[in-house]
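User: I'm writing a short report section on ligand binding and want a predicted complex to refer to. Could you take this sequence and pyridoxal-5'-phosphate and write out the structure as tokens? A short remark afterwards would be nice.
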Amino acid sequence: MPLTSPWRRDFPGILALEAEGQTYLDSAATAQKPQAMLDALLGYYAGGAANVHRAQHLPGERATRAFEDCRHKVAQRLNAASASEIVFTHGATEAFNLLAYGLDDEFQAGDEIVISALEHHANLLPWQQLARRRGLKLVVLPLDSAGGVDLDQAATLIGPRTRLLAVSQLSNVLGRWQPLTALLALAKAQGVLTVVDGAQGVVHGRQDLRALDCDFYVCSSHKLYGPDGVGVLYGRAAALQRLRHWQFGGEMVRQADYQDAEFRGAPLGFEAGTPPIAGVIGLGASLDYLGALDQAAVAAHEAALHAKLLAGLGAREGIRLLGSPQVALASFVVTGVHNADLAHLFTEQGVAVRAGHHCAMPLLQRLGLAGAIRVSLGLYNDGADLERFFAALDRALELLR
Ligand SMILES: Cc1ncc(COP(=O)(O)O)c(C=O)c1O
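Assistant: Sure. The structure tokens for the complex follow:
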């Protein structure tokens, strides 16, 4: 049965790439955008842009309303208790940096921060820097063979010295859901603050952060079919109150004189300066678009594509799949072939896959690899994309072996 995507035509970027002879298989890095999102961006700019939270004039009020509506839409997607628990940043990476500065006062020398072995650099390097500043220890949770955090080891490593647990919901390399509920329970038993990297997980459907009960959850718009330049930091109301302000400037103050200032609480107290207004409005449009789709049909389409991808990789000799992916993504290496050579041949054949360390260098090192090829699919991909990928793979292997 041909695997066609009923949503492909909603994404002009994928059609433009196709017309150029390009097959886009790198959605975990950034997703293509639906026309509805592009219309929202154009509508905002062409209808009269204005700054938010500052002006009483009509364009200013209109922009503020549209911007704040999006905060509600994000809160709904995440099932946050209130829209005021949603802080907009300029990216997921910025949100992690905000946390690592904002939580500085929570630590004393000798305290421990626990992360997992598969973290993206965005959920690793800010904690490394914090650990350096405060004399903390970074403890790394090992993985099992499928690519999930080993819970038995986690139970021994999350202990009385742990102050913070920062873990990914879904690995961008291994494509595996992490045992978050169990990990968060271990953390809660020790009274530990919890940070979840939802950059990949949020793409695969609505979240229920109230049920998950983490303190903080981070994700970015551009992987969620929205514009780049926008990140989301969710914080439980009580957890947000523990954050120290970190960037200072317009609209984050209640009042200021020459010598001192009094700051607002969340969310505006953490959105200093002009926020990414158009980006946030665009994210709202992408969430509307995604929310209106038949979720079961999207999940079934992605699962069928994934099965075809895994079957095709499994049928070829010498391919080592990394872990046991559960979403429409697969990272692999080929015995005796350097991933950079393979990547070069994919590029030459117009197949856009990702190669390298995927911003998770320590994980690749732990797997004994310099890099890997990653194929990641969006809801607009179809069976023909995979056929082009396999044709390119076979041709590359023929040349390289
Ligand atoms: C798991 C994970 N965390 C964090 C990030 C960082 O997101 P951004 O580059 O949007 O700041 C990414 C992006 O690749 C990711 O895959």
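A remark for your report: The mean pLDDT is 97. Residues 91-93, 120, 122-123, 168, 172, 197, 199-200, 220, 222, 359 surround pyridoxal-5'-phosphate (CB under 6 Å).
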